[in-house]
Amino acid sequence: MNALVLVGMSVSDVDRRDLLTAEAARRGGSVAFLQMGDPSLSRELTEIADDGATTITLVGVNTGPIGPAHSWLRRIAAHWWRERAGLKPTVYVATRLASQLDQLDDVLTETKPIGGDEPGLTSAAWEDVTGHRHQVMICRGPRCTAKGAEDNLRAMILSMMEHQLGDADVLLVHTGCQFPCNQAPVISVQPDDVWYGHVDAETSSRIVESHFRDGVPVDTHRLPR
Fold first, then answer.
1. Rounded distance, CA 177 to CA 187, Å?
2. What is the pLDDT of residues 188-202, one digit of tens each?
3. Which tens digit of pLDDT belongs to each residue from 7-47?
4. Which is nearest to 93 in space by CA: 116, 59, 68?
5. What burial letters (b/e) apply to 204-225, b meaning 16+ CB within 10 Å?
6. What distance in Å separates the CA atoms of residue 197 and residue 204, rounded to the nearest whole number?
7. Helices 70-83 & 41-50, crossing angle to 10 degrees?
8. pTM for the whole thing?
9. In b/e form, how buried is each residue of 57-78, taking b as 16+ CB within 10 angstroms?
10. Contacts of 132 (CB under 8 A, 6+ apart)
11. Among candidates 90, 225, 219, 199, which has minimal Cα distance to 136?
12. Of 18, 101, 156, 172, which is the most buried if we count CB atoms within 10 A?
């Protein structure tokens, strides 16, 4: 029994679950997610293997502005394979990600099996909390997502690059609903305890320049606390 799994890599792919599910169904496969979505890749692999699959092919799909590198797909799959008790299916991973669904046929032409000797889930480089000055929580709840949270994230990343702000300055974090839904899209900044509402891409760029770089919050979109 052979199985195909389309793996959503980014939060944006969780938002596009219906499209991924329809494409997977068309190919006789299923869908899993690497982060912030169910089923997780490990859970889907376990279910497929328990159903008797002898070969599983994984294709990473990354349609969002930021997502983990392709290597993380192999890391997670290899971790599952090493931990799997009993019979282990052969797991193939496409050697590159699909950034659009119409690339899947091309991406599927080259796969590589999991050997079990891939890097694990830990590294000395990931031991310590980063030295960031701001932790920025970008709401990806249903309303914020529908009103453009992904565009805000893209604008924020580009503006940070323009102003040479990196991990030592700002840590960007996706969250679920942050609750002032009528103010969507919402972004909150800690430890400053500054909340922004009705944020668009232009405002996101202004927040980077004024708040993150110069330390001055953007009052036009600041929510009362």
1. 11
2. 999 999 999 999 999
3. 999 999 999 999 999 999 999 999 999 999 999 999 999 99
4. 59
5. bbbbbbebbbeeebbeebeeee
6. 11
7. 50
8. 0.91
9. bbbbbbbbbbbbebebbbbbbb
10. 167, 168, 169, 170, 171
11. 199
12. 156
